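Q: My collaborator sent me two sequences in one message, no labels, and asked for predicted structures for both. Can we handle them in order? The first one she listed is below.
A: Yes, handling them in the order given. First sequence, followed by its structure tokens:
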Amino acid sequence: MDSLISIIAEHPIFSGLQNRYLDLLVGCASNVRFDAGKHLFQEGEEATKCYLIRSGSVALQIDLPPKGLVTTQTFGEGDVIGWSWLFPPYRWHADALSTQLTRALALDGKCLRTKCEQDHDLGYELMTRFAILMERNLQSMRLQLLDVYSET
């Protein structure tokens, strides 16, 4: 089985991250698994983690009345889901549902925030990487929502 440090180091979001930062991130990491049909998180809950998807598939869903729950994105191997741990009030704004057995690395948000407060260089590095991720995901969600509303 891969070590947590090698899993983090090989994940695209942390590619090229200095070893000293990888060592800090390991202290916030744990392996998790979700059976198909299980939620990683639900809208309104406290956002405590982000997930580095190692295998499987996760649907990000939002409630769009009158359509109900709509999948806005699907995440798989190599993707990251969840950035609400970064911003107060640290609440999820969508549901994340495992659509098949999913294995991931969970990074504890409070642990990450504490480490970033202690090392501002790490904080800048993570914020830069997550900002790129957020921009990419928001563009993808925008395109998906255009598809959803064009069907009406």
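Q: And the one she listed second?
A: Here it is, processed independently of the first:
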Amino acid sequence: MGHRPGVSAKKQSGEDARRWPGSAHEARRFILDELPGGSPVEGLAIDGERFGAGEAPPELVVPELIEPKPFRAIRVAEPKSVRGQSGFAGFLDGTQKLELVNHEDGISIVWATVSAAIRARVGRRMVAWGGRPPTVIGSFYFPFRYVSGLRGEFRNHPRVVDTAAANEDGKFPSRHPAALIEAAVKRVQQDREKIERELAEAWCASEKSALYVDGSITSSRIASSSAIAVGVIKSHRRLYGEGDAFQVLVTLKAGERTSIFRVAPERRNPVASWYLRLRSGAGHDALFGLVRVEASLSDDISSRADEISRWILAEGSPLALPDGRWDKMAYGIRDTEEFLRAIS
């Protein structure tokens, strides 16, 4: 588990007795001592979505079916009929906040905080899961190669991340400011994924009830093979709906799922997956209320998919307003995000 902001740098690195920053404001002041020749930047947040972090363009993919052909819509339940019938006992989500705090000769120094937590349902209340505390980590991200005059103690600190390491071919990233920001965003996303994965695996090791994970579970061998971890994906850059499957996908009605297909991303773990329409898309765009669900592969995956889908439909009430993603977001995930905003 990572260190919490506010713990002294001496305790974290054994070398620097100054207090490690706990916020972007403190990070901005801290870095002035490390880079006296740099220029502080005030209040410039970095939009990870805008910079893309190497995100692949939208694409359609032919689904690798697990259930018998053809790819079709399967009625699961009327959303209103399953209210209060969810089997999820925990909700896992993470957040990331990035801010440009300094630059030296045009090279950006980024401070980012990543956080993750599981909120458990106890009766009708949401509480912090007692199995493992939430994780909040604040770190500096910048390319060592292009920044001069760094002290060894700072460079070697576990919360200082080099975003300009050579790739497998020995090539270093471009000095282009946008390319370096993208590299920083990508590393931040990797760090966030790591702490989310650790929490998911801790739940799978100690609990018996289902965990609702906001996002994919394919990065974890443990979570992707567990019967109690369920990933729910709200964004659809890659859409498993090429060919005849596309028409089935975009015309799904509320309470319907698609046939189950296998997802096996490169360098990740395979899972069973299907799409589920949470709310009617009438009068909205084609992806309104549409989520993609991931669960472990098993012989009984068809019956499990129906049950899991009913649970996800049940989590649609109450509405996750005023969040703009309310059509796809479970209220338990909104509660987790609000909790993380309060502690990070």
